[in-house]
Amino acid sequence: MIIPVGAVVPAKVFVVVRNGRSPLFANVPLLAGLAIGALLTLYGHLALDWHTEVVAAAPILLLGGAFAVVAVGELAFRLDRQAEELAIAETVVAFAGAVIVWTAFPEFRAQLLQGLDRIFRSDDILETQALFSGDTLGFLLLFGFFLLLALPVLVWATRRAVDDARWVVACSYGWYFFALSLVQVRFTGQLGIFTALFAGVAFVWTAARIDLTDPPAFAESSTDQEFATWTPGWPDASTIVAVFFLFALLGGLGLMQSAIKVQQVTTEDADYQTASWLADYADERGWESHGESYVFSEWGKNRLYNYFVNGNSRSYNYAQSNYGPFMTQTDPDEATAMIGDRVRFVVTQNRDVDREMMHTRLHDNLGSRNGDVAGLGRFRALYVTPNGQRKAFLYVPGATVRGTAASNTTVDVAADVEVPGASFTYERRTSTNDTGAYSVQVAHPGTYTVTTANGTQTVTVPESAVMNETTVGT
After folding, report:
1. For the segment 4-23, what is each residue's pLDDT rounded down to a tens digit?
2. Is the distance from CB of 192 to CB of 177 less than 8 angstroms?
3. What is the mean pLDDT of residues 31-41?
4. Alpha-carbon span 313 to 407, nearest angstrom
5. Which DSSP category does 95 fall into?
6. What is the pLDDT of residues 257-278, one digit of tens each?
7. Are 85 and 18 in contact (CB under 8 A)?
8. Nearest to 402 by CA among 333, 471, 469
9. What pLDDT does residue 3 have?
10. How, if at all, do strands 399-404 and 471-473 pair?
11. Packing angle between helix 5-18 and helix 53-78, nearest 10 degrees?
């Protein structure tokens, strides 16, 4: 957000000097604002440990650069130099400052390169697509006709800013976010602020062209005398209706799309319910850190879940890289090896996939055996939303039930489980070896019915056995 200020300061200094005024006095409010912002940022970093040193130092460097540009402009003004000469001097100062920062501050260089990599990367994330990419269904779905109205006014205002410094800030930020939006649509939110400003001017202009109102005071057809003698009045009913229909024509599509876009980014009830429940569950057990309570979910909602549960929503990279391969894995042992000790909770949602994949074993079977699809011994079902769209699991070490029976026979282990939102029978199946020994891992504590060729017996698996990978004998 502060990068355009680096363009605002030299542009404003150029315009002010071109108009024969002192850039020092004209930029006192701007310099004061930058100084206050730099001090507040530095205080937040030193006293409250906010942000990194690079982020904290950026406003200070910007303030220093702004002072240098204003000083050069003031010198040019006092020496009665031409504005074009000042532009050359500002370019030299800017280039020298960039070289100094690039060579003397490697942290800034690394941060800049990392930021550029994020901006120009190309992947399947919708927000990283270009504004005019077909994958985003066109800019009309984001702005309606407002962007078409705003761009001509932005061009006009940029030309006017050469003589009128009041347009410099709006034009600088408008072009900056428009350029970023051409690369990634995630910047269209910021662009929307300035699109509204320039589209508003275009709307009044359009209304004036069809005699519904007077031209804007800064338009070429509005003289200072006309503005000085203008008095406000209440329009007649026909004018109000005409303006309403003009607004509906130009802005109706944008209004409809605004409602749709807001709905698209609204958190679903199932996600909020699951995140809130997991947060309470983790708090009750004192799992406060990110490592103790990491939630493994689809990457698009990963930051939401981890924000609620452990307060760490900085990145979704791990989920983006690993969640899909984990859920499509058909070998539970391979899937378990993929996540290691990184995960505490796993969240699933409705998907239609192969019955042997981990997603089906978790979401549809709740970790239990289903026909010839084996159950899971390290994922305990915890919570199911009322509509069944989201299900949460706890990744546990698992207890081992061990015993003996007739050799080379099947052993079934089952326990009735009740969790918020679901009641089911958790089943595991294994076989005895040549000596009649068997062992099977289970994820739930409780009383299990063990069915073997020798008969039926029960075994109680305590919570501590599940959480500490303890063996329980029949």
Report:
1. 888 888 888 888 888 888 98
2. no
3. 91
4. 51
5. H
6. 777 777 767 788 999 999 999 9
7. no
8. 471
9. 83
10. parallel
11. 10
A 10 A CB-CB count for 281 gives 18
Residue 70 sits at the vertex; the CA angle it makes with 99 and 176, to the nearest 5 degrees, is 65
Question: Which residue shows structure tokens 């030309």?
Answer: 159
To the question of pTM greater than 0.85 for the whole model, the response is: no
The CB-side HSE value for 302 (13 A sphere, CA atoms) comes to 21
The domain spans of the chain are 1-120, 130-266, 281-473
Residue with tokens 């941060």, as numbered in its chain: 111
Q: In this structure, what token pair is assigned to residue 341?
A: 């000790």
Model pLDDT for residues 78-111, shown as the tens digit of each residue: 888 888 888 888 888 888 878 887 888 787 778 7
Q: Token digits for 24?
A: 């020092």
* Structure-block tokens of residue 175: 């072009």
290 near 303, Cβ under 8 Å?
no
Tokens found for residue 68:
């240098």
Which residue in this structure is represented by tokens 């319910």?
273
Q: What is the per-residue pLDDT across 283-324, written as a single tens digit (0 to 9) for each?
A: 999 998 878 899 999 998 999 999 999 988 888 889 999 999
CATH 2.60.40.3390 fits 281-473, yes or no: yes
Question: Counting beta carbons within 10 angstroms of the beta carbon of residue 272, is it exposed (0 to 12), middle (13 to 18) or buried (19 or more)?
Answer: middle
First to last CA, the chain: 65
Helices (H), 298-345: 299-310, 317-328, 332-339
Q: What is the separation of C-alpha 314 from the centre of its chain, rounded to a whole number of angstroms?
A: 9
